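Reading group handout, session on sequence-to-structure problems. Before we discuss, look at one worked example. The prompt was deliberately terse, the way you'd type it at a terminal:

> structure MUT7 Exonuclease

The input record follows.
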Amino acid sequence: VSRQLKEEIRRGFARLEDPLAGLLAMLESSSDWKGKGHSLGYCIITELQLWIKAHPAVPQSGTKLKKLQARVLGILSQCPANLLDPLISIYQLHTADRNYLLETVSHLYLQGNYKEAAILSIKLKLQPDQDVEKMCTPLLLQDKANLVEDYVAEYPELQRKLLQTLDTWCGPSFNIRDITRPYQGLSRYKPEKFNRRVLSKLVFRLLERFNVDPALCPNVINQRHLRTLNYLFYKRFVEKTMTEENWGDHIQSTVGENRWLQGQLVQLLLRHCDARGAARWAQHCRVPPETLPRAVAEELQRLHVHHRVKEVTKADNYESSQKKDYYQLPIPRENIHFLQTWEETLQCWEKVLQPGQVVGVDMEWKPSFGMVGKPRVALLQLALKDEVFLLDLPQLLQQAEAEGEKEKLPHFIQMLYSDAAITKLGYGMSGDLSSLVATCSALKDTEKQMQGVVDLLAVDKQVDGLSPERGHEEKGVRPPEKGLSLLVQHVLGKPLDKREQLSNWEKRPLREEQILYAASDAYCLLEIYERLCKDPESFGLGSDLAESLVGKQSKKPRAKKQLNKQEVPPPSGQECQGPRTEASCPPAPISPQEFSVVCDNMLQGLGRYLRCLGVDVRLLDNEDDHRKAAEIARQEGRVILTSGFPYQTLRSQVGEGRCFSVNCSEKAKEQALQVLRHFNVQVSRSDIFSRCQ
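And the output record:
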């Protein structure tokens, strides 16, 4: 707005006997001010507000002001949001008769102007005298949850009433249609946005925003716990990716003393276990015997009589599967230190904060399963070449606070992350740091100060041929590897054992399996980094990997594509010791009967597929060491088919061209085609199923 226009507006007000009445007359006789944005009406209103501040004698009181207030309330329903505050201020609507204000809002509501009624109520602070359910229901039906949040934002009692109402609507016996029926003709009604799932999410958002005790919403909390139970049963009995002890910890903490959840637990146990298994877990979770089905109660009685502890399920005993299937920690158990005192921790920091040190950093926290609150780090893992330190963060923070030194831990962590002379290795560092900040707010600026960090989450986007692994799908044992586990498999040859990933990391003492998992998660970062730096070309990375990772690493590893893509060689499926150059001749064609191979144990699907095509195949068992493939290859004259890290080891133990690295990210059929093309194996119709399967 030009200075000349502003001056003209102020001179106009100065000439008026009653500027407030003059403004109102202008608004009532014009529609220009109703538009959004900075209209002429908006300029006039805001200038009057400034002019009144400079002329304090202008504001009126008494009967004359009340009449003006009554008139301005009549036009507020048509008023753009940016004019509400200036008009309320100019006409002192907060001093108007409260009953009259409530009647005005009620009139707006009855006309179906629910949004306008709510906004005006918020501006005039009328919420304590209104029915929160009545005011908020049509707003929720119109998908205006943000306005509902603003409506109750300053009133804890209304927050509780709203949450109780929403929780009632989410009850198993409540009919949502009873709420929607009176509003069938509602404009902008979005029925797809009004269901238990959406309402449940809103409840959790409100609980977190307003820091309300979740016990106020038993229906929503129970339903969320039930979803957690279903998820835990899926992980244990379908995926089989949780140990019994880990699963039991979560089941017990989820169900607790809740009778309804105990009943749901028994039903799930009967669906997945026999009666004896259900009885054992019912006993473990202290389910009252009188609530159990007859068959389970009888088994429970037998358990009491004979003091027997049986295996819980008919499912395969997954825990007994050979650990050789997974990455193994190469350091002795006594070199893993669980630290709970500051005396121990200070000795750890002396070793960690050494110039030139390379440190694998990882963190663990209790999974929230969608409950309220941000995860708080329960364990900080720091891996050095010869030892791993597991820091009990809750205990150390509590001890430091008791000693009046609560800045001690943040100080050390900031020293570590900001020291460019120390290389810090992580995987998804940004997520870890956000959880660390939720645990200790003094660390909120750590990410901005980071130097010398390598986020391997960014690196695995460059590693050649790396995508979700499918090599074990045909086993029916575990889902495809992903994330860090996939990177470990691709670089080091075997995936991480992730069965403890979803552990209750806040429970003390930690189980031995948790300690080994936590140490492995941090230590494997050191081995990956060392392998990639020694032989980057084998993984499709540039030869100056170490320099590009540490020297050019972004201080903010949030983006997954921080590092420039290096020029990559052909996919890993083309790797073979002594690879053919373009100038060399392809090998002479051979039949599948003349082609004999030994498949490493991560390529059993490929081995079966090649055998279907008539190839002479030997498969390593799951528990076999990779080096056995070299023994068989030398003794029987076979070609080794392997992938990832084992390829680097095995190719040096056999003759030139006798070890082939298969792309683990491909399906068995595509892997077989790679092998057949590379070795020029010609398959005829008569070769198919020519060997015993």
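Points for discussion. First: Residues 220-304 form one domain. Second: Residues 308-321, 469-477, 551-584 have pLDDT under 50 and may be disordered.
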